[in-house]
Specification:
Layout lengths: L1 E4 L8 E2 L4 H13 L22 E3 L2 E3 L5 E5 L5 E5 L5 E5 L4 E6 L2 E6 L8 E8 L5 E4 L3 E2 L12 E10 L2 E10 L15 H7 L1 E10 L5 E5 L15 E3 L2 E12 L3 E12 L5 E12 L5 H8 L7
Parallel strand pairs: 1-20
Antiparallel strand pairs: 1-2, 3-4, 4-5, 5-6, 6-7, 8-9, 9-10, 10-11, 10-12, 13-14, 14-15, 15-16, 17-18, 18-19, 19-20
Length: about 300
């Protein structure tokens, strides 16, 4: 699984390794239909609503004591990882990204399936076993929002627990992509660019007992606080580092393979490494615009 499709690195959008081509094709779709858009990113950020009983780590969440971590896996699901050995305790394909921890339950984003692009599916898992406890009502955001992102579409969210509710503060933006033209090569007008530009934010709440979901919009869009980047993450007596290995694909697309590296926080002694979901980084200029600007040098068949 891969987290993040962006022109610059941002955390945590989930994209499966088994559906990279499908995700890239979807991300480029607005270009082919004439409504091209620029960048995508999903990041978990700190928020003032509710509380957090976990430590945010690359790719997921960890218990503060440093016993178990819950991460988006490289196998198109989420895993519970034993932080003593680095081995997976369980893996679930019923979820893609951990959102919050509530007692002995993991609240996670489930695969979108056939739902519309503005829908977040939420599933509640039993933390010790990974078995599904319940499915909540889907969170339905404004029609133009793309939770998985796309070229010119960005989405970020911050998860907390408030009493018996999951609270997701979210922020979404839309704009034209660089280098995109209308039919005949005409650049977009200022009016068209202004019409395409859209920003909204709000709060989604999910009752963890009844599963009822609700969404409210902010009268004035509010930005989310970006998480502070860190060279390491201390959890219990362990220090986690993120190791990234880039892979370049045709069209300026980059895949970033990600690995958690755990060491003893005091001595620095290596403990284990565990592969987690990576990232897909799209170019600033869509491939179709690149070919129009610089000529398509690829061989014809």
């Amino acid at each position: 699984m891969f987290i993040g499709i962006a022109s610059t690195f941002m955390e945590d959008v989930v994209v499966s390794t088994r559906s990279i081509a499908q995700k890239i094709q979807y991300a480029l779709l607005p270009v082919t239909i004439g409504f091209a858009l620029l960048a995508v990113a999903t990041a978990f950020a700190a928020d003032s609503i509710g509380t957090k009983s976990w430590v945010t780590i690359p790719g997921g969440l960890a218990e503060p004591a440093g016993k178990v971590a819950y991460v988006a896996s490289a196998g198109d699901g989420i895993e519970a990882v034993d932080m003593e050995s680095g081995q997976a305790i369980w893996e679930s394909k019923e979820a893609q990204r951990p959102l919050a921890l509530a007692g002995d339950q993991v609240i996670a984003q489930a695969p979108r399936g056939q739902a519309k692009i503005n829908v977040i599916n939420v599933v509640i898992l039993d933390a010790p076993s990974g078995k599904v406890v319940a499915h909540a009502q889907p969170i339905i955001l404004p029609d133009w929002v793309a939770v998985d992102g796309g070229i010119g579409l960005s989405f970020s969210s911050s998860g907390t627990i408030d009493g018996n509710e999951l609270v997701l503060s979210w922020h979404a933006e839309r704009q034209f992509a660089k280098g995109v033209t209308f039919a005949g090569g005409a650049p977009p007008t200022q009016e068209a660019m202004a019409a395409a530009r859209k920003i909204e934010s709000g709060i989604a709440r999910v009752d963890l007992t009844s599963g009822v979901a609700s969404v409210t919009l902010d009268r004035i869009p509010q930005p989310l606080k970006a998480p502070h980047s860190s060279p390491y993450y201390d959890v219990g007596d362990k220090r986690l580092n993120l190791i990234q290995s880039p892979e370049n694909l045709p069209g300026g697309i980059r895949i970033i393979h990600c690995m958690l590296d755990a060491r003893n926080a005091q001595t620095g002694r290596p403990l284990w490494k565990h592969e987690i979901a990576g990232e897909i980084i799209l170019p600033d200029v869509p491939p179709t615009a690149q070919r129009m600007q610089g000529g398509d040098q690829s061989p014809r068949r």
